[in-house]
């Protein structure tokens, strides 16, 4: 019988709605979309898409690490941008974190993101 496990860490921003940071189902970890909130203060990074992307990926990393996973275990990433004009910047920073075994991915522009941020990223990770 399969169990799902709810996972949350203080090293990533607390959920700002009715969801959890991550759910583990057997060997698969589903990480909720992360925005550029600083975990300790819940303040938004607003100094530009580059800084926002770094914070988002630090948040993703903290959730992965809490569950015993790493970027190398990510099999699918979803990137949401408020402006597709930011694609090159986000892609360059993303490549610094996913520097080996890049996952499947999509990147879409959306009209608005939570708290009017420029970038949100969610991932799915898997381990044997």
UniProtKB/TrEMBL annotation:
The record's annotation in Pfam families points to: Ribonuc_L-PSP
Q: Which GO terms describe its cellular component?
A: cytosol
Q: Which InterPro entries match?
A: RidA (IPR006056), RutC-like_sf (IPR035959), YjgF/YER057c/UK114 (IPR006175)
Chain segments annotated as transmembrane: none
One annotated GO molecular function is: deaminase activity
Q: Which residues form a coiled coil?
A: none
Note the PANTHER family from the entry. 2-IMINOBUTANOATE/2-IMINOPROPANOATE DEAMINASE RIDA (PTHR11803), PROTEIN HMF1-RELATED (PTHR11803:SF58)
The record's similarity note reads: Belongs to the RutC family.
Q: What is this protein called?
A: RidA family protein
